[in-house]
Amino acid sequence: MDALIPAAVEDQQDSGVLASITIAQAALKTGYGQFAKGNNLFGIKATGDERAANQPTAEYINGQWIQTVDNFRAYDSWADSVHDHSERWLLRALPSVGLRWCRQQRKEDGFR
């Protein structure tokens, strides 16, 4: 995971997403970098004509874990994966839940 630090720090400077959070999530999703097929550090699935790496996964469907194979985004580098992850978070996920909700959650969790 040491190789991820420069990319995460650079991305933090560009996007504002904390490098520590990026590294922690990548570590959890990939078993500390052991399972990052296609340089995909965050388990982002491919859609449409996006470049993909086909790999086994477990999905929770109708109350049961199902073993299946799916297409996950493939990246040229870990830095590309980090950039895409931050872009998706900032442009898609954050606006859908709203900044007000995020602030409220932080407050409820004891952060100011």
UniProtKB/TrEMBL annotation:
Keywords: Hydrolase
One Pfam family in the UniProt entry: Glucosaminidase
Keyword Nucleotide-binding annotated: no
Top-level lineage group: Bacteria
Positions of the Mannosyl-glycoprotein endo-beta-N-acetylglucosamidase-like domain: 6-91
InterPro entries: Glycosyl_Hydrolase_73, MGlyc_endo_b_GlcNAc-like_dom
GO molecular function: amidase activity
Protein name as annotated: Mannosyl-glycoprotein endo-beta-N-acetylglucosamidase-like domain-containing protein
Source taxonomy: Bacteria, Bacillati, Bacillota, Bacilli, Bacillales
